[in-house]
Amino acid sequence: MRVREILSSKSIGEVFTIRPDATVAVLLTTLADLNIGALVVSSDGSHMEGIVSERDIVRKLGNFGESANVTVGEIMTTDVRVCEPDDTLDELMGIMTEYRVRHVPVLDGDVLVGVLSIGDAVKSRMDQLEFERDQLTHYLHGQ
Q1: What count of Cα atoms within 13 Å lies in the side-chain half-sphere of residue 14?
Q2: Which domains are present in the chain?
Q3: Which residues contact 84 (CB under 8 A, 6 or more apart)?
Q4: N or C: which end of the chain has fewer CB within 10 A?
Q5: Do the Cβ atoms of 115 and 96 come closer than 8 Å?
Q6: What are 72-112's pLDDT values in tens digits?
């Protein structure tokens, strides 16, 4: 299975982003409203400048005395692990495991086309296993 297939099977095709000059308060509200754990940081909505996750908030926000005016750009991760639409599910899961990340932006060239979470990867793997099981069951029962 390829990353492009996983993206096309997601119920939400929209890629949510946040500007680097947005405040952490806006970030928190956006994450809560969308019920997601990370946002790609982008000034124009299609080119990635970084990613900001719940983990960034927990680990980095404490470094600021007064957090009301802290911007996303100040706490975002800029060394982002990414994948491409033609990468395999195994490659995606390898990135997540090796670098201990839960969200991986998908870039086609330098254009952001999606974000995959660990939940997306696990669901895709489970779907694959169910399909293989069903095929084996049909084969064994001659159907």
Answers
A1: 5
A2: 3-140 (3.10.580.10)
A3: 3, 106, 107, 108
A4: C
A5: no
A6: 999 999 999 999 999 999 999 999 999 999 999 999 999 99
Residue given tokens 């926000």 in the structure block:
61
Are β-strands 38-41 and 111-117 bridged in parallel, bridged antiparallel, or unpaired?
unpaired
Give the closest residue to 116 by CA, choosing from 81, 68, 143, 142. 81
Give the pLDDT band of residue 7 (cuts 50, 70, 90): very high
- Cα separation, 45 vs 60, whole angstroms: 24
3-class secondary structure per residue, 50-105:
EEEEHHHHHHHHHHCCCCCCCEHHHHCECCCCCECCCCEHHHHHHHHHHHCCCEEE
**Consecutive H or E run containing 140:** helix 118-140
pTM (predicted TM-score)? 0.86
66: buried, middle or exposed (CB in 10 Å: 19+, 13-18, 0-12)? exposed
